[in-house]
Design goal:
62% of the residues lie in helices and 13% in strands. It is α+β, with helices and mostly antiparallel strands. It folds into 2 domains: 65 residues, Winged helix-like DNA-binding domain superfamily/Winged helix DNA-binding domain (Arc Repressor Mutant, subunit A, Orthogonal Bundle); 34 residues, no CATH class. A 3-stranded antiparallel β-sheet has the order 1-3-2. Helix 1 packs parallel to helix 6. The longest helix has 18 residues. The mean pLDDT is 86.
């Protein structure tokens, strides 16, 4: 079924809402929009990410990125390691738990997009990990 241009934004907002609701209902990491933005940037864009680079890409301050990374590290969704090329800098590293979070998020989004209630089941599965 074709979607009219007038309803496409509403459908995207509904998908976004359903995804956020599923994330809120799940147990475990409760991330802010900024933390989720940092996490997804690190996981969806290949390469070594630095605080400076993330701040530039997301157009926020370096302290804001540092706070987001502190929270992500608290949940073991990302970690910092010294940059071997520049000891003054750190690189953001992915973690197995972060990989699982992003994989589960993909499932939640896919389920919300299909209109199913599988998003809640995916959220519960993710919380059990």
């Amino acid at each position: 079924m074709a979607t009219s241009p007038a309803t496409a934004p509403d459908q995207m907002l509904t998908l976004f809402r359903d995804t956020i609701v599923a994330l809120v209902r799940r147990e475990g990491s409760d991330l802010s929009a900024r933390q989720l933005g940092v996490l997804l940037t690190c996981y969806l864009h290949e390469g070594g990410h630095t605080v400076r680079g993330l701040a530039a890409e997301l157009n926020v301050s370096k302290p804001a990125i540092t706070r987001a990374l502190d929270r992500l590290a608290e949940f073991d969704l990302a970690r910092r390691k010294p940059d071997p090329a520049d000891r003054r800098s750190v690189l953001v590293q992915r973690t197995p738990k972060g990989n699982a979070f992003v994989r589960d998020l993909r499932g939640i989004i896919a389920s919300a997009a299909s209109g199913g209630r599988k998003s809640e089941a995916a959220a519960k599965r993710a919380a059990a990990r």
